[in-house]
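Researcher: Let's continue the batch. This sequence belongs to Hydroxylamine oxidoreductase, and it's 481 residues. Same format as the previous ones, please.
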Amino acid sequence: MTIRVIRACFAILCMFAIPLSYAAAPKAQSMGAFAALSDESKQCATCHKDLNPGLYQQWGKSKHYGANVGCYECHQADPSDKDAIKHENFHISVIVSPKDCSNCHEAEVEEFSKSHHAKAGQILGSLDNFLAEVVEGAMVFNGQSPAAVSGCWQCHGTEIKVLENGDLDPTTWPNTGIGRLNPDGSVGACSACHQRHEFSLKQARRPEACGKCHLGPDHPQKEIYEESKHGINFFAHVDEMNLSSPKWIPGEDYNSAPTCATCHMSATRDLPITHDVGDRISWTLRPAISEKVDASAIAAGKKVKPWEERRADMKNVCTSCHTSPWVENFYEQFDNLVILYNDKFARPGKALMDVLTKHELLTAAQFDEEIEWTWFYLWHHEGRRARHGAAMMAPDYVQWHGMYEVAERFYIELIPQYREIVEHAEKEGKTEAAAEANKVLEEILSRPEHAWFSGNEPDSVKAARLKAQKDFKARYSSDSK
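Model: Same format as before. Here are the structure tokens for Hydroxylamine oxidoreductase:
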């Protein structure tokens, strides 16, 4: 037996050899080992070790290898499967779907299927997808937009299509989007997070695993994490993170910092692993106006895990390293930032856009008018950055990449563009529509939080601010001497 096999087998055995003191935290289902590698997989390996040596070596380092799970165990297909092909006298499928993985990892797939990740493929037909298909792109690649194929769909997933000759449509494959719609009817791609063919715990637990999709101008979680104290300490002490530990419990296996997986998925001393990444999230920070994560389900008459329970589970993760008062105060800060964004900018902005839409003061087409881009930037980019920055403790994303840009967009772009549209409506004789639109704006700007902009601040408030500015300049001048 080779050293590699011994090491791999040892790793599998370690999954089951967890000390009794850790029994309080249930673990995800683990795959048992087969007695020997199947004849079919032996035949696959004989060719692929020469044809695809990198793939073969990755498999050779995996726990699958140590458990005698080979190519055929994952890729075997029924001849009636939509994507089944005949290859070297075997019926196989190129795509390994969650349905295939569930043969050994049933609990993980069931949890994933309940998650928001599993719904990511529903972006098809959304406003975001309209941008990639129409505004940015054109349907010139087998009836699809290259911008959507190589952009949106690679993170969100797409419907995998099989051509008449049995080949996979190149507009839909390769694709490891998290919400991929597979030919066998299953949803998702385990390989979106667990890179094939090694399926390394270490790789899946690092923040880069999530950073493939969660980065950039509209949801920069990776950059936010890197700015936070958590990210700073992770990269400073990554060699102490014990990332390959089978159980990987904060406060026991590591203590430097959490990663994305720590907070959203991994076990604690009290909680089991979960593949439902929203199971511990209390706010949804994705839409224009944030709401508690269970609000939509409740409105639809569905019963889901309440946001209070989700938050309690996230606090359980936090208290692995932080005291309860620290955690409670953090959530006070986070909640108040979300509420500020909602009440000062998001709800007013939506009210303005709604009244323009109601009276057909905008065209039916999306993104053909400047104000539509302005509103999209405000909530989809800057508003998300501010909210996610607060959620993950990145102050620069809350301030300069977030609320500062939200405010600039609202006061200096959205309102002037709104007024211009209303003035144009008045000139066209749409007096009733213009009157209602002006009334909505006047009501918004009459609120105390907008008084600085409308010029209606009390003199005492103006005087206090001027004094504070004068005192600052005096301190600054004194410090510079």
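Researcher: Any comment?
Model: Residues 324-358 form the longest helix (35 residues).
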